[in-house]
Amino acid sequence: MCVASAEPATAPGSIHENPGVASNAASRAECGPGSMPETGLQGDVPAEDRNSGRSRDGYSCNMSQIGGYSGRGGGITSTNFEHCSYVGSFFPGNLLGPAQGVQVLDVSDPANPALTATLTEPAMLAGTWESLKVNTARKLLVGTGVPLLTGVGLMSVYDISDCAHPKLLNPGPGTDLGMLLPITNHEGGFSPDGNTYWSSGTAPGVVSAVDLTDPANPRVVWQDLIGLSTHGFGITPDGNRMYLSNNLGGIHVLDISEVQRRVPNPRVRQLSQLSWTDGWATQHSIPVTYDGSPYLFTVDEGGSGGVKLIDVSNDDEPAVVNSVKLEINLPENQDAALASAAGGSLFAYESHYCSADRPVDPTALACGWISSGIRVFDVRDPFDVHEIAYFNPPARTGDNVELANSPHALASLIGVPILSTPAIAQSIAQGQFDPGQALSSRSGMLALGDISTDWCFSPPEWRGTTLWATCADNGFVAMQLENGVYTPPADQKTTVGS
């Protein structure tokens, strides 16, 4: 198989840095009737609640659970199409449960989701990490195999015209173990027209464009090493720009128009780079427009970076113009965050994957915020964001063994919130970290964590005033927004970026 590589892609383009650390949180939601509000800082699950069992009741504000399907856990990210949800798999735990591979749920009745199929091709058994995506235009589901952080070669493509019973389209390349594709896998996503699936590995930062014009024969049409470590991305509606995440904190702005047009031996040009120190493990970007001007909502997975609003009206000069954080993410609260998150494993109160409710003038943003649960923000004015609702599902404390498909359960062999380390270091450097406040009854839990919160990784999907999401421990959850806090726009369309 011939793979085209474009040497100019490695040229950095213009380089920019945003050195500041955002110090303001989105204003709190005003919780109406039926809520079970948080007991501490916005986004925090205090040590007292974890130790007493209060966190096993969960927390809610203007949002409640309609129904769910826990299975053996929800993997890392999942995706949806029509009345179905596809629950990601996590290796090796998914192999231990009765429903191996990717679980297919019929959610026609959100109060009672039902398992209708399992996808057990090699890519699905190997763990799908953050690669499981749907293209609605072509009714395709794709996932790649990622056993641990990075995988190679495996990719499965399904026809989901009958969403509850996906049909494998590529029994050969990507599925047959003797016909592996020359790709690295961690995260992936579609160009809007569904003709290209882009796969990215974490380290090294190899990005591959896989042509799916003929889904039975996926083939790599472009590939290159973009940086030391890359992650997810967002692609503009015309398919011509990719905003690729830099795991060290930042984005690469790439011109992918030649791949989009299927120019022979295409080039991908790197137009600019933007880096920052406020957060790292940058996850993905959601291209949107406000009043005709292009912006990104870009999510940091580590370091309490939250969600950044980036002005991309000039390809050569992307600029951070606002930030969305919770109180627990602020520099002055990193000591409190460490006190409560100890024993909760690698992640604490980090943002992970978000979705806007439409690409043009979005009115709301919903995010999986790991230990802080599902958070919903009013973003009609992206420079004045306020939270309107949240749902942090009941902790599954002590259920580690039952949750074979939960990365949280396995990762809880480690108790320390490692991905928060840069934010803690910044707080110390700024003189805002009080070691006394960082100590709690949980501080000695360096190993064998107690999963006293859930980890919500998936991008929530908008369904009128309901949201669908998966969390690592509780699996699939259908939620209802309440108390009149959200009115769906007529052109509501879940927008994730790829």
Q: Which characteristics define this entry?
A:
single chain, 498 residues, mainly beta, Methylamine Dehydrogenase, Chain H, 2 domains, five-stranded mixed beta sheet, five-stranded antiparallel beta sheet, 7% helix, disordered N terminus, Quino_amine_DH_bsu, LVIVD repeat-containing protein, WD40/YVTN_repeat-like_dom_sf
Radius of gyration: 21 Å
Beta-strand segment tally: 32
Q: Span from first to last CA? A: 26 Å
Report strand %: 25-35%
Shape designation:
globular
| Count of structural domains | 2
Largest sheet: 5 strands, mixed
Helix/strand-derived category reads mainly beta
What's the quick description here?
The chain is mainly β and 498 residues long.
Textual characterization of the structure:
There is one protein chain. The protein is mainly β and 498 residues long. It has two domains: 12-71 and 327-498, no CATH class; 77-276, 7 Propeller (Methylamine Dehydrogenase, Chain H). Helices cover 7% and strands 35% of the residues. The chain is built from six helices and 32 strands. The protein has helices spanning 47-52, 122-125, 257-260, 334-341, 407-411, 421-429; strands spanning 14-18, 59-61, 63-69, 79-81, 84-87, 102-106, 114-119, 133-135, 140-144, 151-152, 155-159, 167-168, 184-185, 187-190, 196-200, 205-211, 219-227, 230-235, 241-246, 250-255, 269-276, 280-290, 293-302, 307-311, 319-324, 353-356, 364-368, 374-378, 386-392, 461-463, 466-471, 475-481. It has a five-stranded mixed β-sheet with strand order 1-21-20-19-18, with no helix packed on it. Strands 2-29-28-27-26 form a five-stranded antiparallel β-sheet, with no helix packed on it. The chain starts with 13 loop residues before the first strand and ends in a 17-residue tail after the last strand. 59% of the residues are buried.
